[in-house]
Amino acid sequence: MIVEQLSLVDFRNYAAADVTLVPGPNVFVGRNGQGKTNLAEAIAFFATLGSHRVSNDAPMVRDGADAAIIRARLAHGERRVQLEAQVNRQGSNKARVNGSAVKPSELPRYAQVVLFAPEDLQIVRGDPSARRRFADQLLVQRAPRMSGVLGDYDRVLKQRTALLKSARARGVRGDALSTLDVWDDKLVTLGTQVIQARLALAADLAAPLAAAYTSIAGADHDPEIEWALSIRGNDPDSDDAGTPAVVTADVADIAAQFREALAARRVAELDRGLTLVGPHRDDLLLRIRGLPVKGYASHGESWSVALSLRLASAELLREESLLGDPVLILDDVFAELDTDRRARLAGLAGDYEQVVVTAAVEGDVPDILRARMVRVEAGRIVEEATDA
């Protein structure tokens, strides 16, 4: 997949912008705060339906505007597809494919993007929510229908939790809240699909993660990845490394364990007014040398794991996709890496059909990725050039 043209209206600091991209490396260069990352964010939006920097859409809309427009022309071999997303400050977003209105959840069917940024250190060092978000965005790219499943799960979760809070305020205890059973059924049905998809994702990432880590770090530290599931008793509020996921990903087994866990925690849920069991409470465990990356890995090792997760994601999408390679975006990454990791990453990235790199200093970008330079200044594309 190749992004040939990107157009923005009222997106971040861009009143309007048009930029042409080519196969191979494309480098956006400019001082910090000029809008380089905004271009990368716009490209990735079509694949993830969100930002890698913020959890809601409003900050992506230019100050004073009600909506932002992102348009991109993609090439899938000889086929061309025009995508458009209208990101609204309030209310639901809108989307078009080749001029026809579609649900925004349809966009990832046409666009696959893997973006690595300094914020990705939070995947390995931050709260479980960062790891869940990483996994779920990859799930949507791998199977776009999961966007609907995840959205429905979140809605059911909010409604069930609201019921628990109301019951707590009214002093309802034990099994007196019979209406909770209806929401339990919905939560189990949707949550089981999420858990099953996440387990399969971790299993499929294991081999490419190990290969990518060895390539980036130059060492085999035996990286591991697995889910700690709340339906198996994992408590994300504790400092424990967590309980390994169930061995089987069978739907019936997951659903049965989910129901048992809900029944076992019902009194505690009513006491606290919270839903304590489900994929929203799970954690993706990452280890090297048998130890959790969070709390034990060095800074360089943490960077290597974060990079490896993204490269493994790209390899997985590359193997499964009919669209060709995903677009690989490296957002302000090279300034954070030592010389050895820069060279290793550049060698791996150069193998993809299209790579987008952002950098404040041109010299931070390895020579093999400097084929096309696009200069950015204060929300404007001021110069486009191709190195000789």
TrEMBL record:
Residues 3-362 form the RecF/RecN/SMC N-terminal domain. It comes from the Bacteria. ATP binds at residues 30-37. SUPFAM superfamilies: P-loop containing nucleoside triphosphate hydrolases. The keyword Hydrolase does not apply. InterPro entries: DNA-binding_RecF, DNA-binding_RecF_CS, P-loop_NTPase, RecF/RecN/SMC_N, RecF_2. Keywords: ATP-binding, Cytoplasm, DNA damage, DNA repair, DNA replication, DNA-binding, Nucleotide-binding, SOS response. It is found in: Cytoplasm. The RecF protein is involved in DNA metabolism; it is required for DNA replication and normal SOS inducibility. RecF binds preferentially to single-stranded, linear DNA. It also seems to bind ATP. NCBIfam families: recf (TIGR00611). Belongs to the RecF family. This is DNA replication and repair protein RecF. The lineage of its organism: Bacteria, Bacillati, Actinomycetota, Actinomycetes, Micrococcales.
